[in-house]
């Protein structure tokens, strides 16, 4: 793992690169939970997802949102955070072009980060550079405007989440005919259920054909 400070729209952005293989199978851009409630790129759910994707052979890029760690700026309820994630992606593509050009891009997020990633995904579609897949954990549907997502999006939620009720996620997913993987007994932060979260992602990637991504 290596940490860097890169230029952002309102100042420096702190990022971490994990799994810097000579030739990864793809790039995962990973977003953390709400910065005003202690969310950082070192959150346990985020680092569980990071380790999972590294084991699957991906380069994982994490970044701190505005006002967290060494990232400049103030919280902007998702607007600036979306811009910053796109800036991180642009930096990786421009500065590591020879290694990562043309590789599949996965957008992954936890809680507030999942909400932001749906907006990043929409922006990338508008730029004609869509992500290959989204992974949304503890999707914050009851708190922010989480946008519709592609049919192959992996949505994982805790049965006993009292921060974002499961019913809210089901109500968001239903009009999209979008499956939701429910972890029995799990709360919002998946206490005691992180191995299960990891296994769900592994199973979702079993037999994935990279050319189809």
TrEMBL record:
GO MF term (any one): hydrolase activity
Coiled-coil blocks: none
Any single Pfam family the record assigns to this protein: Hydrolase_4
Keywords attached to this entry: Hydrolase
Keyword Hydrolase annotated: yes
InterPro entries: AB_hydrolase_fold, Hydrolase_4
Domain Serine aminopeptidase S33: 23-142
Name used for this protein in its record: Alpha/beta hydrolase
Organism the protein comes from: Parvibium lacunae
Source species taxonomy: Bacteria, Pseudomonadati, Pseudomonadota, Betaproteobacteria, Burkholderiales
């Amino acid at each position: 793992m290596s940490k860097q400070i890169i230029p952002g729209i309102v100042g420096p952005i702190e990022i971490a690169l994990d799994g810097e293989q000579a030739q990864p199978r793809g790039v995962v851009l990973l977003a953390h939970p709400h910065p005003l409630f202690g969310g950082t790129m070192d959150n346990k759910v985020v680092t569980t997802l990071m380790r999972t994707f590294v084991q699957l052979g991906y380069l994982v890029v994490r970044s701190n949102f505005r006002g967290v760690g060494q990232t400049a700026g103030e919280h902007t309820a998702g607007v600036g955070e979306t811009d910053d994630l796109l800036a991180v992606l642009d930096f990786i593509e421009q500065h590591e072009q020879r290694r990562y050009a043309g590789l599949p891009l996965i957008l992954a997020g936890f809680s507030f980060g999942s909400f932001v990633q749906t907006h990043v995904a929409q922006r990338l579609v508008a730029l004609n550079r869509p992500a290959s897949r989204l992974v949304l954990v503890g999707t914050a549907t009851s708190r922010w405007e989480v946008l519709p997502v592609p049919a192959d999006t992996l949505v994982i939620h805790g049965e006993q989440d009292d921060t974002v009720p499961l019913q809210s996620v089901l109500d968001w997913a239903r009009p999209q005919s979008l499956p939701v993987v429910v972890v029995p007994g799990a709360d919002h932060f998946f206490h005691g259920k992180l191995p299960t979260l990891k296994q769900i992602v592994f199973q979702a990637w079993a037999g994935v054909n990279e050319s189809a991504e």
